[in-house]
Amino acid sequence: VPALFFSKVERRYPQGSGALEILRGAELAIWPGELVALVAPSGAGKSTLLHLAGLLERPDGGEVYIGGTPTATMADSERTRLRREEMGFVYQFHHLLPEFSALENVVMPQLIRGLGAKEAKSRATELLSFLGLKDRLIHRPAELSGGEQQRVAIARAVANGPRLLLADEPTGNLDPHTAGHVFGILLSLVRASGLAALVATHNMELAGRMDRRVTIRDGLIEQLA
Ligand code: ADP
Ligand code: ADP
Q1: Most C-beta atoms within 10 A of its C-beta, which of 121, 160, 186, 224?
Q2: 45, 23 in Cβ contact below 8 A?
Q3: Which parts of the sequence belong to the ABC transporter domain (predicted)?
Q4: Angle between helix 102-113 and helix 76-86 axes, rounded to 10 deg
Q5: pLDDT digits (tens, 9 = 90+) for 82-96
Q6: Ligand 1 within 6 A of CB of 216
């Protein structure tokens, strides 16, 4: 089954006496192991689409399936559980906890999830090492470069083994060289884990390195060449 499936998704916001139609029957399927770029001009609805996929908003029509499970009319508590267990999020800014080390930042979500401390630490160490941060485990975010901070944020996002990674301009705050490097690492992580990823970006070079590109046009999701 697709990790993420939009079926005839509608989303509109009130505007004056009418409505601003952001999505009006959008279709999208992202399969395990696929890395899909979401490329669209500002205001087209990228954040709205990511919020719908991340179960932070509900569609006004249609259905959003996560791993085959319909979510549109699910109770908030169930949506929160699905979000915690099935999804990882990466944003433009890392949102790491400043007073904790890189390792602790990656251990934390696993403890919240109920994993034992020893297992969580071992998994966090393995992940951070995979991301090239073996020598940065005890550093706090302020002691890390921008690219390193973002790699820690990626490790945190996938620490609980989600089936879907949602990223909003994950390298948007990095210089082009570092962005290319961090993106390459993200790519190999997705490849190694078989997780599905939807990545919103303005960077056409990075978009070109993903498996597919989609855009939002007139409220529909379209494939780009
Ligand atoms: P993007 O991320 O592509 O820039 P957004 O999804 O943030 O686009 O927004 C799409 C459009 O919907 C914009 O015109 C925005 O002003 C509008 N919009 C977004 N959220 C709301 C909201 N909560 N209420 C009203 N309008 C909104
Ligand atoms: P980049 O060129 O990738 O932005 P920086 O010049 O910010 O990297 O940092 C280079 C190295 O120095 C990084 O590996 C980082 O871990 C380390 N570093 C940066 N700032 C600090 C700091 N305040 N304390 C300790 N180490 C730091």
Answers
A1: 186
A2: yes
A3: 4-224
A4: 140
A5: 999 999 999 988 899
A6: no
Nearest to 159 by CA among 131, 191, 127, 187: 127
Widest pairwise Cα distance in the chain:
58
Q: Write the burial class of residue 222 (CB in 10 Å: 0-12 exposed, 13-18 middle, 19+ buried).
A: middle
| Atom 6 of ligand 1, nearest CA residue | 45
Confidence (pTM): 0.88
11 lines ligand 1 (CB under 6 A): no
- pLDDT tens for 104-161 read 999 999 999 899 999 999 999 999 999 999 999 999 999 999 999 999 999 999 999 9
146 C-alpha to center of ligand 1: Å?
A: 28
One-letter identity of residue 71: T
User: Cα dist. 223→26, 171, 202 in Å?
Assistant: 12, 22, 16
Does the C-beta of 42 come closer than 6 Å to ligand 1?
A: yes
Q: Enumerate residues 6+ apart whose C-beta is below 8 A from 67.
A: 1, 2, 3, 86, 163, 164
- State the Cα–Cα distance between residues 121 and 143, nearest whole angstrom: 20
